[in-house]
Amino acid sequence: MATTSTGPHWVPAVRGHELALDGTTLICRRSGDGQLLSSVPRAARASRAGERLTELRERLIRHEEECRSTVESWLLSAGGPIPAALLGRVWPDPAWRTSLAHLVVTVDGFTGVLTDVADDGRTTLLDVDGGAHTPPAGPVSLPHPVLLPDADRWRKLLDTCELTQGIAQLARDVHHRPADVDPLATGVDDYAGSHFEELRDATARAVRQGCVMHGGFATLSVADEGVGVQARYWLGSDDLYSAAETGRLLWVDGSERPVALGEIGPVAWSEGVRMATLIHAGGTHSPRTAGDPEG
After folding, report:
1. Torsion-angle region of residue 78: left (phi > 0), alpha (psi -120 to 50) or beta?
2. Can you give the pTM of this predicted structure?
3. Which of 99, 133, 149, 281 is least surrounded, with the fewest CB atoms within 10 Å of its CB?
């Protein structure tokens, strides 16, 4: 590790300078007086120590991204159980802990904000009033915010305790299926007609939102009560440098058959609409669409 609980671990670089990683930031100080420099000199960065720390930094960044992606996939699995022993093993890792800490979870029927996990998987949770509880060790579920009827109370607790979440759970935009949706329809056209000067702009925006491109669609896999579906939002399959216009949002099952809107679960609906909304907002479209809350 490049950083310990007592601070950065400094290594000699070029004459008179030492380097270290502060989290994933490369920092430099003078060897003589320990003065921290505002930037890393080119010679120090190009030194053997600089190259090795830069490689380590890149690995740490990839690891952090993998941790965030994994935890978000748990969120999209609609509360699927996470083994307590697994959380106990990964919690000491700062990247995992940053992604998991302060999420609202459910353990042994008790729901609370996760603040600690022991080696044996036993969790410490805060209730909505800020009281600490340690339920028996057992599988941990990570509820999607659309399934949390008291989400506002949990947001207030985080604000009061000045706690932040490593992934968007309580800050995540949620969308509920309108009552007037035709339950037999197999697609939604509300997010069609957003224009992009180049298709690659739309696909890049989709990838930044965690989507996977497949056959002209931005796709996102979600599970509701253990039933997996894939939300698909049409962006186009022409040349990446040609103009593009968004199309229909739909959901397909494991056999890639369209699913009727009346059969779409609340998590799949919310995430599909969130995906379409965020991508749609990046193009040129009529003013009827809401803004771009999550970029």
Report:
1. left
2. 0.80
3. 149
Confidence of residue 225 (pLDDT cuts 50, 70, 90): confident
Output helix, strand, coil percentages for the chain, rounded to the nearest 5. 30, 25, 45
Check pLDDT > 70 for residue 286: no
Confidence of residue 242 (pLDDT cuts 50, 70, 90): very high
Q: Helix (H, G, I), strand (E, B), or coil: what is residue 212?
A: strand
Q: How far is CA 160 from CA 154, 173, 289, in A?
A: 10, 21, 33
Cα gap 19→121, rounded to integer Å = 36
Tokens 């028996």 correspond to 136
| Three-state secondary structure call for residue 58 | helix
Q: Are 146 and 138 contacting, i.e. CB atoms less than 8 angstroms apart?
A: no
- Whether 112 has a pLDDT exceeding 70, the answer reads yes
Q: pLDDT at position 177, please?
A: 94
Query: Where does 108-234 have alpha helices with state H?
Result: 151-161, 199-208
pLDDT digits (tens, 9 = 90+) for 49-80: 999 999 999 999 999 999 999 999 999 986 57
Residue 293 has pLDDT above 50, yes or no: no
Q: Which two tokens stand for residue 1?
A: 């590790």
Write the CA distances from 162 to 115, 158, 165, integer angstroms.
13, 6, 10
CA dihedral 212, 139, 63, 124 (to 10 degrees): 130
Sign of CA dihedral 57, 59, 62, 66: negative
Q: Is the dihedral of CA 239, 257, 276, 98 positive or negative?
A: negative
What are the distances in angstroms from CA 278 to CA 34, 273, 284, 292? 46, 9, 13, 6
Beta bridge partners of 17: 30
Question: How many CB atoms within 10 Å of residue 161?
Answer: 13
